[in-house]
Amino acid sequence: MSSPNNTTANNQQVKSDIPAGLWLNCKSCSELLYQSSLEENLQVCPSCGFHFSLTAAQRIKMLVDPDSFQEIDPSLHSCDPLNFSGDGSYAEKLLSSKQKTNLQEAVVCGSATLNRIPYALAAMDFRFMGASMGSAVGEKITRMLEMAVQRSLPALIVTASGGARMQEGILSLMQMAKTSAAVMRHDEAGLPLIIILTNPTTGGVTASFASLGDIILAEPKALIGFAGPRVIKQTTQADLPEGFQSAEFLLEHGFIDRIVERKKLRRELGLLLHYLGGGRAI
Amino acid sequence: MISCLEIEKPILELEDKVGELISSSLDRDADLTSGILLLREKLDLLKEHFFLNLSPIEKVQMARHPQRPYPADYISLLFSDFLELHGDRRYADDRAVFGGFALFDQQPVMLIATRKGRDLASNMACNFGCAHPEGYRKAWRLMRLADKVGAPIITLVDTPGAYPGIGAEERHIGEAIACNLRDMFRLSVPVISVITGEGGSGGALGISVANRLLIMANAYYSVITPEGCAAILWRNNEAVPKAAEALKLTSDDLKNLKVADEIVREPADGAHRDYQKAAELLGEALLRHLQDLRKMSAEQLRQDRYEKFRNLGLFLE
What we know:
The complex is a heterodimer.
Chain A: H1 7-11, E1 23-25, E2 32-34, H2 35-40, H3 56-63, E3 70-72, E4 77-78, H4 90-101, E5 107-114, E6 117-124, H5 135-150, E7 155-161, H6 169-188, E8 193-201, H7 203-206, E9 215-218, H8 229-236, H9 247-252, E10 258-259, H10 262-276
Helix pairs in contact in A: 5-6
Chain B: H1 9-28, H2 33-52, H3 56-63, H4 71-78, E1 80-84, E2 97-104, E3 107-114, H5 120-125, H6 133-149, E4 153-159, H7 166-170, H8 173-183, E5 191-200, H9 201-205, E6 212-216, E7 220-222, H10 226-234, H11 240-246, H12 251-256, E8 262-264, H13 275-294, H14 298-310, E9 315-316
Parallel strand pairs in B: 3-4, 4-5, 5-6, 5-7, 6-8
Antiparallel strand pairs in B: 1-2, 2-3
Helix pairs in contact in B: 1-2, 3-11, 4-13, 6-8, 10-11
């Protein structure tokens, strides 16, 4: 299906972080896939529909008008406030994540247009320490929402996160309240917030901004929950129901608006931005 | 014999000795005063030394002490005419979170507190203090009511964390906590939260978006339990003390990181040895902060709470 609004999305090829090679096995159905056919298909398995993770850059490219994205706070990054050392030092983990991803932190924020409708957005990048939220991620999300208030923009956050970043201890926990406060101010300014939940979104991110969208979309089969399935199994000693904590499970229980396949996301986001702007022409 | 932690044994043994000496001096009509005085001095020193030198994991153990006063104990000692209000008007009445109006300093306040239960039956009924979504939704219902009628809100928190269970996820505990985090910033009344024992992550934060956060000297507040952290980062149980240390979760750490506004002192023996004195110390702090906050306008209170959290976090740019 094609519409005038999503030609860019259909045509673009998304490069992946999967090591270069001609083919690979699907993580879900094990089908042998050509790298190039996966890229053509927006990193969705043509055989089973499994949605591979996207980098923040891939995600943003998929959801904005060409060359419209303007990043904010690109150099804002984490320090090591607790001088934390676990099985390796936090400082080392940060360094290796930066090298691996070419990012300064686990979220990329800015403003862009889609179908020439301006909006503010943030995309989380799971490769960077599981896109866990420490002070820097919390600050960047907060500033993005503050920028949206200042410029009267709707906002979009594409989530993927293992939760709060343990290595910053209580300060990470406080980012849940800080980002939620920013959502409150954006809400009180009469502006809409759209959330796109992607695999996986858990812990402190689920228990803060990820659950606070006026509209909440999710990619198919994304794992979305507060506690991890392993912890729940351990605590309750019970078998988890089929499809527990999947996007489909959340839809069934009334907590998200729609499950949207990746190839339709751009078109649906465009429609939503139009509707939420009261249908005003830009 | 009261139940005690391994680390407390030297204190309790010395206390027993002093007790024996006193009773034998009475029995035999012998004057053992000097010996008793000496032992008492030694005991005081030992106690002081004990609390000064607790390691982070030992502080966590003190926070979880089975005899530690719970929010319900502080409520009965510090507040009068408590009128509990039940249910979230959506699904259930979560026993792990309770609340209602009470009088404090002769004025109405809204109390919200967690409840662990004191014996196995009540532990089970209260789910060991681990709230379900309904607990957070009930808390919000009561906080909104307090906001409407202008009653300050005091929350007393002692929870290992929100419950990781199937029903909790089905009814979206993440959403229940998230809504409280957002909506507590809308409140126009003073909000004071106290971590009295365990401040277990999002489960504690979900009722602690306050103008003033107080923490009892031997309480802890953490993004994850030391056990959970050790399991994830070290993949073994022996690392629990290391994790407790690394997480910076003690009352002193919390004050240094500007998360806690004040550390509430505890009696020399710890809150669990003297409920009355512990409650007095907490009551004095609550009254002082409440008097300060009552001087602020609705807008000032909202702004104050926003700024407190807006400024938390350390990063570089």
